[in-house]
Specification:
The protein has 128 residues and is of the alpha+beta class. The protein contains 4 helices and 6 strands; from the N terminus they run βαββαββααβ. It is globular, with a radius of gyration of 14 Å.
């Protein structure tokens, strides 16, 4: 299974380079709410949330628009997606996106753009 992994959970400095890269790549603007990766402060710690490719979004998609590809990545078929947002509601990591100005949802596709942007080098696309 191919997925984005945080290799050192203590090394994130919350610089948001990964968030910028993701939102700009897919939405052509920097908007943390449009990134499929989340950086959250929890007291003194920084928590990096990524898609774990669990499939909960696919199981809750009434339109059948989310399917797992051969590499184990759940992908949204934009032609089938109704934009209802149920996938966003059930995502345990809170990394599914439904932008108000777009008709469909989006999610991490394990493309590696965020990993390339991370100055700490703690994001990695792994195949297990």
């Amino acid at each position: 299974m191919k997925k984005l992994v945080v290799t050192d959970k203590t090394a994130c400095k919350a610089c948001l380079a990964c968030v910028v890269a993701c939102s700009e790549a897919f939405y052509k603007e920097f908007d943390p709410d449009k990134a499929c990766i989340r950086i959250e402060a929890k007291g003194d710690a920084v928590v990096t949330k990524t898609c774990i490719q669990c499939g909960k979004c696919a199981r809750n998609c009434e339109a059948g628009a989310i399917k797992q590809n051969a590499k184990g990545v759940y992908m949204i078929d934009k032609k089938l997606c109704t934009g209802c947002g149920k996938c966003v509601e059930v995502c345990p990591m809170g990394v599914m996106v439904k932008a108000e100005d777009k008709p469909t949802s989006s999610k991490c596709i394990a493309c590696g753009i965020c990993a390339k942007a991370c100055p700490m080098g703690i994001l990695e696309i792994q195949e297990k």
